[in-house]
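dude i think i finally got it to work??
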Amino acid sequence: MTSGPFRAAIFDLNGTLVDDLAFHFRAWRELGARLGRELDDAFLQSINGLKNEDILPRIVGRALGRQEQEALAEEKEERYRALYRAHLAPVPGASELLLRLRLNGLRLALASSAPPANRALVLDGLGWRDRFDVIVASEGLPGKPAPDVFLIAAKELGVAPGDCIAFEDAENGVRAAAAAGTYVIGLTTTVAAEELRTAGAQRTIRDFTVLVEEPWSLP
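look at this
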């Protein structure tokens, strides 16, 4: 595999490096049911990649105070972690691709909307803390589809966004990465390839094995 013209790679976490969206969706459905709201697949896909502070008012139907917001977010995230912990595993080829890119000289960043405890579950559980040169969290930043988290990741990596390749699974995340000016590859873990391309992905893949096992030529 060759690295093409890219100097760095920026990865989303949930649904991209780990295929955990079904567990997030189940936790959201359970919270919604407790609040008297049935959350269908279309709604769950529409919030995929967003921050909790942007999601919860949509579920509750009103603005939330800080204390209520934090309590509901923690209830959902604790349930997600309880559901997913025993199933923690990388998307096929993810570990190998991270190593391959590093060996090819690319700098690596994680750009995630996940809360700190969720990031820790994955990074510590998979032993990935040392895989990334930069970890950019969305706390204090506009959430996806705003491009901020990708722009900051590129800046902290010391490269231009146009020299970065970004990996995302959600339409909101793809829009954010495309708006930042990166080359975007969409993973079809939860969304169809056509929808990811419509959102701005230049290429779509099922998982990372194709990028590890075959010569990599971008369209």
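The chain has two domains: 8-20+89-213, 21-86.
im so relieved honestly
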